[in-house]
Amino acid sequence: MERSIFLAKFWGWYLIIFFVILSFNPKRIKQIFTDLKDEKFLIISSFVSIIVGLLNVLFHNIWEANWKLIITLIGWASLYMGLSLFIFPKRTVAALEYINIKLVQVIYTLLFFLGLFLLTAAYNIISI
Questions:
Q1: Residue 11 neighbours by CB distance under 10 Å
Q2: Are 112 and 120 in contact (CB under 8 A)?
Q3: What is the DSSP string of 34-100?
Q4: Is the Cβ–Cβ distance between 112 and 19 less than 8 Å?
Q5: What's this model's pTM, rounded to 2 decimal places?
Q6: Tens-place pLDDT, residues 40-65
């Protein structure tokens, strides 16, 4: 299977599942931000984000003006977020809390549609 298709399926399903979990259990959002104040959780989260982002970037760094660019941007965003959480933890957590409070519904709805778009591209439901 082509890497782009595999990663589109992975990120598409991940975003859909993430949206469903947070929709049915919104307390998880608050719990995540509470847990980010714990340094052990923060370090593990940042390392996982760095690893996932770095693997995504190394295996899929395609800068074409199509759906494959979304996968590349997700990888870079994950790498950036992991590095930010590790290097500037307090500032990054504060920024994430501010963004989350202001735009929580918009962000999760966009992630849902982004997941649907990636799954549509991966399964070739509609030619994109």
A1: 23
A2: no
A3: HHTTSHHHHHHHHHHHHHHHHHHHHH-----SSTHHHHHHHHHHHHHHHHHHHHSHHHHHHHHHHHH
A4: yes
A5: 0.88
A6: 999 999 999 999 999 999 999 999 99
Tokens matching residue 96: 């994430």
CA 70 to the chain's CA centroid: 11
Tell the burial category of 49 from Cβ atoms under 10 Å away from its Cβ (0-12, 13-18, 19+): buried
Question: Any idea what DSSP says for residue 125?
Answer: S
For residue 122 the two structure tokens come to 């991966």
Round to whole Å and give the CA distance between 42 and 61: 27
Q: What are the extents of the domains in the chain?
A: 3-120
